[in-house]
Amino acid sequence: MDTTLDVRAAAVAGIFYPRESGELSRFIQAMFADAAGASPWLRPPKALIVPHAGYIYSGPIAASAYAPLNRLRGIIQRVVLLGPAHHMPVSGLALPGASAFDTPLGRVRVDEAAVDLLRPLTMVTTNPAAHAREHSIEVQLPFLQQALGTFQLVPLAVGQASAAAVAEVVETLWGGLETLIVVSSDLSHYLPYERAQEMDRHTCASISGLNPLASHEQACGATAVNGLLLAARQHRLTPHLMDLRNSGDTAGDHDRVVGYAAFALTQEGAHDPSPLDH
Prior knowledge:
Helices cover 34% and strands 24% of the residues. With 278 residues, the chain is of the alpha/beta class. The termini are far apart. α1 crosses α2 (55-66) and α7 (163-172) packs across α9. It has a single domain (7-191, 201-222, 233-250), classed as LigB-like (Protocatechuate 4,5-dioxygenase, Chain B). Strands 1, 2, 3, 4, 5, 6, 7, 8, 9, 10, 11 and 12 form a 12-stranded mixed sheet that branches. It has helices at residues 21-34, 55-66, 112-118, 128-132, 135-138, 140-148, 163-172, 193-208, 222-235, 247-250, and strands spanning 7-8, 45-50, 78-84, 93-95, 100-103, 106-110, 124-126, 152-158, 179-184, 189-191, 237-246, 257-267.
């Protein structure tokens, strides 16, 4: 590895997911295998919405969206990854100021050309501290590495920003089939099981209708989700719900649960043939 790079080290390996590379790879492969029966998207996804808790809790739900991406291995070259800033206040959207991110599965380079496209936008800043301990972005990387192999990353910690500002950032980097947009968000937090199911179904109905979420009580990443939904309306994307569960369904009790959903958003209708069309 190039030791001259300014690298953001893995912060939650061994906490949110296995620290050892072989164990991590096997764990993800097993989740991908279990997700093989998930309803497939018919067109290549332009965007995903995926949860970001510890893998034993939300990993299977995230895997339902990530597993089919192996069909796009070698096609997707850039991942624009937006996650909420959990540990410190952030004004706008923050880049890490790093050239690469490390995980137990290897090093992911930051797409410097894409970062340069964002520099004229006043809502985008550089804030290494916002990324230093942030798990919402980091936990997505091993899934992407397992599914896609090599790709470049544009990691953005989302703080106090409007949905329109997020949509402008997403639009700036929209690109074509080579670019995937990923929004990292859990749903409801610490409600009783049945109440969480009710709220999360309502939230997923809003996302499926491309309607903005009312508050961060519905989803901790609501700002980024709403920005993506604005862009999705503009580009006429169709959301597909891949999985909806909560921590009571995976590895927790039913008293206070966290909700998790996975969506793939695809471009439907008449457009250029997909390289996946056979």
